[in-house]
Design brief:
The protein is mainly alpha-helical. The protein is built from four helices and no strands.
Amino acid sequence: MRPNGHFAISTWHNDEPLADALWYVLFNAFPAATYFDECRSTVAIAIGAPQWAAEARAAFLDPKAFSARLVGDGHA
């Protein structure tokens, strides 16, 4: 059954490096097929952590380059 109105999909990565969580959201986290055509946004919130905000911004602006850096460093 499809919910009425707006909805969000979230994950929690408490014991993982930020870069790994960002890679997950960019390359592994996809909504069910029912919602795929309507899902257009990814959000990262970094309260009081400007370095985390900068890392998320860089990853979201150029996912291919972000992934290449992680894979080249032995991550993901």
